[in-house]
């Protein structure tokens, strides 16, 4: 690292154990290795996690990240982790104490004078409070994300950015055994309910662009007043479940993929089964350089990501689609990427061989 790096050029990523936490950290480290831009040249990366001995955390350390195991309820320890940080990427935990842990991160960052915070959130979370009396549990996890958003805004004012995302296409790898062997896409959503999914590669490139631009503004002494603070990374057009199944089938070049609606409990049991499935337990080898326009070992989901809290969050997302509250589409992803995001059909066409590895 250059000796010109000042004490405020550390980027902290929380929840490195999660899918978005790992992928965003990996993307930054790849940029650092290639010295892609000023952000990559001048920043150091600190990744907070619960298990620093996991394969993927060890990999991030080998690539140059400072990887630290933390207790997210220990604000004093978190204050140490925020020392010298210019930016914090807050990725809420998939845990029972998500809100309390996020609050500790936010307050520790505030105490240490962190200049900017970004938050990973979920499309539709602001609609989670629109429920009838007695339905507080219906969108409990989504409501927690909206609660954390409010804390970020309150503590950091203009110096924050919230990025809401919908479902990643890569989560369909967990459905690949059923798609490939039975020709069925089975989800707990009405076939005519509309919702969105995006390519994780588009998302991580967009996230990197936002981080790079924020760093460049800071380097030029430009403040955050007046800049966009909420991005909703969605497809430009949402589709029904049946249309998504058709696009997946056409992209994979397979015979017509049938759509089947199943219950929440059937989906829950299926995902728990995939969590323990050998196809998603083995750690892929990182032999190829990432291209960031298609999937590979660096972007495959693994079973350990599917803890019960994430599964319930996914079920709430689809439940909201059933209630007609996920018909949300913006141009934010296209504008930040500065190119067209990949369509569902194109994504599955580009990655058809990768999907067949999981059949």
From TrEMBL:
Q: Which cellular components does GO assign to this protein?
A: nucleus
**InterPro entries found in the cross-reference section:** NAD(P)-bd_dom_sf (IPR036291), NmrA-like (IPR008030), NmrA-like_oxidored (IPR051164)
NmrA-like domain location: 41-223
Kindly state which keywords UniProt assigns to this record, in alphabetical order. NADP
The record's similarity note reads: Belongs to the NmrA-type oxidoreductase family.
Name this polypeptide is given: NmrA-like domain-containing protein
Q: What organism is the protein native to?
A: Rhizopus azygosporus (Rhizopus microsporus var. azygosporus)
């Amino acid at each position: 690292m250059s000796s010109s790096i000042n004490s405020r050029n550390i980027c902290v990523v929380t929840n490195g154990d999660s899918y978005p936490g790992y992928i965003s950290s990996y993307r930054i480290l790849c940029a650092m290795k290639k010295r892609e831009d000023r952000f990559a040249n001048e920043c150091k990366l600190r990744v907070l996690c619960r298990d620093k001995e996991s394969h993927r955390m060890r990999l991030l350390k080998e690539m140059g990240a400072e990887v630290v195991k933390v207790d997210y309820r220990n604000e004093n320890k978190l204050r140490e982790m925020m020392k010298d940080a210019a930016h914090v990427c807050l990725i809420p935990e998939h845990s029972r104490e998500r809100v309390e842990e996020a609050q500790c991160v936010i307050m520790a960052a505030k105490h240490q004078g962190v200049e900017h915070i970004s938050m990973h959130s979920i499309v539709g979370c602001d609609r989670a409070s629109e429920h009838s009396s007695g339905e507080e549990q219906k969108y409990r996890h989504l409501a927690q994300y909206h609660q954390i958003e409010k804390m970020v805004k309150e503590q950091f004012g203009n110096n924050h950015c919230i990025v809401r995302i919908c479902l990643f296409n890569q989560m369909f790898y967990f459905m690949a055994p059923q798609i490939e062997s039975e020709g069925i896409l089975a989800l707990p959503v009405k076939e005519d309910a509309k919702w969105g999914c995006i390519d994780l590669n588009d998302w991580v490139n967009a996230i990197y662009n936002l981080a790079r631009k924020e760093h460049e503004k800071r380097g030029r002494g430009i403040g955050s007043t007046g800049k966009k603070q909420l991005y909703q990374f969605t497809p430009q057009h949402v589709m029904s479940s049946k249309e998504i199944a058709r696009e997946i089938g056409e992209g994979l070049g397979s015979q017509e993929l049938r759509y089947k609606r199943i219950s929440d409990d059937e989906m829950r049991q299926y995902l728990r089964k995939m969590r323990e499935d050998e196809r998603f337990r083995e750690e892929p080898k990182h032999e190829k350089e990432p291209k960031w326009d298609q999937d590979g070992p660096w972007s495959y989901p693994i079973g350990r990501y599917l803890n019960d809290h994430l599964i319930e969050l996914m079920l709430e997302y689809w439940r909201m689609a059933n209630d007609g509250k996920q018909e949300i589409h913006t141009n934010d992803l296209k504008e930040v990427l500065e190119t067209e995001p990949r369509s569902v059909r194109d994504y599955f066409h580009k990655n058809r061989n990768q999907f067949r590895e999981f059949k």
